[in-house]
Amino acid sequence: MTAPPYAGLWAGQDVVVLAAANSWDEARMADHQLAVALSAHAPVLYVDPAASVLARARVHGLRGARLDERVRQVADRVLRLSPEGLPAGSRPGVADLNRAVVAHQVRRTLRHTGGTVQAYLDANVLAPTMDRVPARTRVYWAQDDFVGMGPLVGVSPALLARAERRLSAAADAIIAANPTVAASLESPGRTLHLIPFGCDAGLFGGPLPDGDPAVRLPRPIAFLMGTLNDRLDVDCLRAVADEGVSLLLVGPRSPRFASAAFDALLALPNVQWTGPRAFEDLPAVVAHADVGIVPYTHSRFNEGSFPLKTLEYLAAGLPVVATDLPAIRWLASPHVEVADTAAEFGRAVALLARRPHDPEAVGHRRCFARAHSWEQRATEFARVLGL
């Protein structure tokens, strides 16, 4: 049998396995960005959530379903494993089978690389595998309130709660990305660390491009990027538009997000939705903005989340208006205005959007964001992982 191209790639080296909650090919989420930053400390095997051959072929074509395409180098010192699994992976019995199938593929990949697992960082709550792969340190990465996420993704909250308890019990330590989630996971004898998400300060903090020709709105512009779904407070968005500020929305719309109020918002002349943009293309869109917004409701999931966009706005030099969430309070940034009612939100956005450009304030915001970069977060993770 022919050895794979990555055979012996990490021979004799300590390796981190990151069992991700999100596929590498999806929107560039925290898993993706941490893996790249963490690779400065150790080689990283990034493990996608399992997908069936048919599901992978539907998305990537027959080439993406081939066995020899399931392990690829996606960044310097980062290998990505796209494990095969059974369909309907959220069902309890299927999830247990997928755990065994994925763990086998992880062990096989690691044997080929020649590396030794120093740390197994598991964020895949439904099908965790860290208890099935030898590792010196096992860490559960609690990225969000996964139980609160259940209604958003159509998975039973009770099932997610059981899965999270099992994953927490198997871990040597837990890293939580949100203070509310950290508090919920506290337990006597349990080692718990609060390390929130970071930002790509290099991408957003460099000179901004000239702009995106598809943007047709007049200034001032309030900017929202990310998935458009039930997490959004549509009343806050409408209040911004009603203040006469242009509203630029960038990101995919969830198929589950059926909102007549949101449809009416999109019909306004000072509102534009561009659809999704590649992560690396976002600075060109940000170049049009005068203020970044985080208009989230107080759902359980939002209370337990850490909005990446907050720090990305600051890295681009933008002032920010956000609703009052635990993650926003934790940041305690003087550059983030908290406004919790629709009327307050609209007024705060209008005030900031119409302020004259202040290069000194832009510099302070970017400096704040650099202190929360993914490179900084990776250093904190490395200490917990024993690197």
UniProtKB/TrEMBL annotation:
GO terms for molecular function: glycosyltransferase activity. It comes from the Bacteria. This is Glycosyl transferases group 1. It comes from Nocardioides ginsengisegetis. The lineage of its organism: Bacteria, Bacillati, Actinomycetota, Actinomycetes, Propionibacteriales.
